[in-house]
Specification:
By secondary structure, the chain is mostly helical. The protein folds into two domains: 177 residues, Vanadium-containing Chloroperoxidase, domain 1 (Up-down Bundle), CATH 1.20.144; 265 residues, Orthogonal Bundle (Vanadium-containing Chloroperoxidase, domain 2). Helix content is 51%, strand content 5%. The protein has 14 helices and six strands. Helix 2 packs antiparallel against helix 9 and helix 9 runs parallel beside helix 12. The protein is elongated, with a radius of gyration of 23 Å.
């Protein structure tokens, strides 16, 4: 969908939803909202927004989207929720451009609006997950409703609370309507996907994973991009090239499991490899929560931060899956085992080569994980105005005893957002998933997406 068509669709959705709302003092408008709700709007901390982000992460884990199974629907869920929260807050006090819902909400309580926007989008996203992830809805939807009830219980009863609930509900309805029919119901496990037969062509990566994962995700409607191909990265290196042989021999030497296949990885490199297996939306949102808390963001700032981050992450997956299945390049596990057919005298086959972790059933180029890291780092850099940041991260995919949920988790330290993105990209070679070119190209691809989102969406109107 081109940008003009997408804008027209948004305006149509907003107009349709706005006609459904009749709560007092909640009216559609092209101007900024001026109501303060229960207390002055600018005095509302970002705690509630941060807590709902954490609640969305709980839902992702409960539904087995995370820590590593389905970051596609996970990223979509976060983006929908935070855009609804952003729009509802900016209807109360206009500080940034809305995304899908524009209104004035005089006297609406911000905390009630946040809760209603989060509840409306989370319930919708969880209720429409595809199989096998949909099984969680029976328990997770009631759990979300319980979180919603607890959040509303903290808001004094009265007209402001009612207006906040109406506002948040309307903002959620707008984004849910906008994303209905976006293509995210595409099949996830395609056992009939045609495997390549020629050198360089993708084929299934493991007998235990006899399918291609989400080959149609590149057709999902982007949140921000004009098209999935807008910032497509470089193509894979030609098989006969020196550059391909260099990347081939690097991942062959470093990416093995250390048991069936020897590896030259250091202990720290093995930690890096496993650390970054975790779902990108789960990890980068966890970092954003930490930063929002440390820097004392208010509700409007936190909503904008998460809205920008999660739009970029969602569009990163759409862009990289479009490229992956178009170029259909083989993974290192296939390339190394079948190197005798690649026509490159600088490569040699190892028919039993085994990566550190089983390779995901998706083509190689570019690296989706690297795209996500580039996009996230670009958003964080653009939002905070600097690449410099001192932070630590834990992971859900390290060995037992070392994870985020353990008493003494392994923490990795970083001094720049770009440093974390770079280590994330390196990890995909170290774990045996990607050629180096797929990772470096992916980071560049994601960086362009993140910059575009920050510059074009949720622009500040009052500083």
């Amino acid at each position: 969908m081109d940008h003009a068509a997408q804008t027209i669709r948004r305006l149509a959705v907003v107009a349709a939803v706005t006609t459904l709302i009749s709560a007092p003092a909640l009216t559609a408008s092209a101007h900024d909202g001026t109501g303060h709700g229960a207390g002055h709007a600018s005095s509302v901390s970002g705690a509630a927004v941060i807590e709902w982000n954490a609640r969305a992460a709980e839902a992702a884990l409960a539904c087995a989207l995370a820590p590593a199974n389905n970051p596609l629907h996970e990223s979509r869920m976060y983006a929908m929720m935070h855009l609804a929260i952003h729009d509802s807050l900016n209807a109360i006090k206009g500080r940034a451009e809305p995304y899908a819902y524009r209104a004035r909400a005089k006297g609406a309580a911000p905390l009630a609006a946040i809760a209603a926007a989060a509840r409306g989008t989370l319930v919708a996203a969880v209720s429409t997950l595809p199989e096998p992830f949909s099984a969680c809805a029976a328990t997770e939807v009631p759990a979300i409703e319980a979180s919603y009830a607890a959040a509303l219980a903290e808001v004094p009863d009265g007209a402001a609370k009612n207006r906040g609930v109406a506002l948040g509900t309307a903002a959620a309805q707008a984004i849910v309507a906008l994303r209905t029919g976006d293509g995210s119901d595409t099949p996830l496990f395609d056992t009939a996907y045609p495997q390549g037969t020629e050198p360089g062509e993708y084929r299934f990566t493991s007998p235990d994973l006899p399918f291609a994962f989400a080959p149609g995700w590149g057709d999902v409607t982007p949140f921000a991009l004009r098209s999935a191909r807008q910032f497509r990265s470089d193509e894979p290196y030609p098989l006969e090239s020196r550059a391909y042989a260099r990347d081939f021999n690097e991942v062959k030497a470093l990416g093995g499991d250390g048991t069936t296949t020897p590896s030259a990885r250091t202990a720290d490199q093995t930690e890096v490899a496993r650390f970054w297996v975790e779902s990108s939306p789960l990890l980068w949102n966890r970092l954003a929560r930490s930063l929002a808390e440390q820097r004392g963001l208010d509700a409007w700032q936190a909503a904008r931060l998460f809205g920008l981050l999660d739009m970029a992450l969602a569009d990163g997956y759409i862009g990289t899956f479009d490229q992956k299945y178009d170029q259909n390049f083989w993974r290192p596990v296939t390339a190394i085992r079948e190197a005798g057919s690649d026509g490159n005298p600088r490569t040699s086959p190892d028919p039993t080569w085994t990566p550190l972790v089983t390779t995901p059933p998706i083509p190689d180029h570019d690296s989706g994980h690297a795209v996500e890291g580039g996009a996230a780092a670009a958003v964080l850099r653009g939002f905070f105005g600097s690449d410099r940041a001192h932070f630590t991260l834990c992971s859900h995919t390290l060995p037992p005893g070392q994870t985020c949920t353990d008493p003494d988790p392994v923490m990795r330290s970083f001094h720049r957002f770009s440093q974390a993105a770079s280590e994330n990209a390196d990890s995909r070679v170290l774990v045996g998933f990607h050629f180096r070119h797929a990772s470096t190209s992916g980071t560049e691809h994601g960086t362009k997406i993140g910059r575009y989102v920050v510059r074009r969406y949720l622009e500040l109107t009052h500083h």
